[in-house]
From TrEMBL:
Superkingdom in the source lineage: Eukaryota
Lineage: Eukaryota, Discoba, Euglenozoa, Euglenida, Spirocuta
Sequence intervals crossing the membrane: none
Domain LicD/FKTN/FKRP nucleotidyltransferase: 196-245
Pfam families: LicD (PF04991)
Region listing for Disordered, in residue ranges: 36-98
Basic and acidic residues: compositionally biased ranges: 36-53
Name recorded for this polypeptide: LicD/FKTN/FKRP nucleotidyltransferase domain-containing protein
Length: 350
């Protein structure tokens, strides 16, 4: 959204006058031409009603009506009606509250270290090399990505001049991000609605929480999965709900975390994917949270609303920064890289 980015530019000029010019360059790239494929579906192989609700829900709003990720992610009346109420909350007397938007947003070149851009170029080269041989991507060249700048604005990082010198929006890694992030949004929306329906408390974690908080309610540009937690006490309730739901619309399977705890992979696809877990299929990961320390409940509860993309009904822990500090003890606010370093993940807290 160019208008939104221009407003952000004016704001950044006031608080960060030294990094205004790089944002100007980003706006110039975002205003560049997009490649349209008028005769292809928005996502190859996707259902016609590619909405942000349950699989049998209403049609998706038009792109013009969809809130931009630049906008303040205020909860709509519908989202408020669907959000957990006091009687649904796990902690007695606690209600979900609306998370105000934060100032950490987008991929400002002035906040990145050189290692980030070095890693990004390596990622670009990897995608280029695998583009024609990767079975998971066989439909990507012909998929329509014309709505990407509205639906997945975070993908613009792959069009930055630090990654690609070309002005075209059709570079392969940008296209891959656009397709996979729109699939992931659909999967997240369905999973979150499913958990709300079955009164299973959940909250975002790890990189998904990081994107929701630091990047103004968007997925991190290089992620192809979403991470969320439920209490280990709710695992059987989750299994019962999955086993009794005939219209869920997504394939799922059980796996184990690095600490050998149960976790569940829920895929965008309705039928079993051709790849094994971790091989790249778009999916949501549900991790079991073990209450190792009683004081951790104060970090998690009461859960609060933190809409993704302004409309996906997600929940975040009460003390987001406290949980991120535990996840990423070496830092997470800025100067981050793609392959670890300052954002090395700490799984020992779970």
């Amino acid at each position: 959204d160019v208008e939104g980015l221009q407003k952000l530019l004016e704001h950044q000029r006031l608080i960060h006058p030294d990094i205004a010019d790089p944002i100007d360059k980003a706006i110039h790239i975002i205003e560049g031409p997009e490649v349209h494929h008028e005769h292809e579906p928005e996502l190859a192989g996707a259902p016609e009603d590619h909405d942000h609700g349950p699989a049998n829900g209403d049609a998706k709003p038009s792109a013009e009506a969809k809130p931009s990720a630049n906008a303040e992610p205020a909860a709509s009346a519908e989202a408020a009606a669907e959000a957990p109420t006091k009687k649904d909350a796990e902690e007695p007397g606690e209600e979900a509250v609306v998370l105000p938007p934060e100032l950490h947003r987008y991929y400002n070149p002035g906040l990145m270290n050189p290692k980030f851009w070095e890693d990004a170029r390596k990622k670009r080269d990897e995608v280029e090399q695998r583009w024609m041989s990767e079975p998971l991507w066989r439909d990507y060249p012909k998929a329509d990505i014309s709505g990407c700048r509205t639906n997945a604005p975070e993908c613009a990082v792959w069009a930055m001049p630090q990654v690609n010198q070309t002005k075209t929006r059709a570079n392969k890694i940008y296209r891959k991000c656009c397709i996979e992030h729109q699939k992931l949004q659909k999967t997240m929306a369905d999973v979150f609605d499913f958990l709300h329906k079955h009164k299973i408390q959940f909250w975002l974690g790890m990189g998904t929480l990081l994107g929701a908080y630091r990047n103004n309610g968007t997925i991190i540009a290089w992620d192809t999965d979403a991470d969320l937690y439920i209490s280990e006490d709710d695992e059987q309730r989750l299994l019962d709900a999955l086993g009794s739901s005939e219209d869920f619309g997504h394939y799922y399977e059980k796996d184990h975390s690095p600490k050998r705890r149960p976790m569940y992979w829920i895929y965008y696809e309705k039928n079993q994917p051709t790849s094994s877990p971790g091989m790249g299929d778009t999916h949501v990961e549900i991790w079991m949270w073990k209450w190792k320390k009683p004081e951790n409940k104060q970090i998690i509860y009461p859960l609060q609303q933190c809409p993704l993309y302004g409309e996906i009904n997600a929940l975040c822990p009460a003390q987001i920064e406290a949980l991120l500090n535990k996840h990423y003890p070496l830092g997470w606010k800025s100067k981050y890289s793609l392959t670890g370093g300052r954002t090395t993940l700490n799984l020992s807290i779970m």
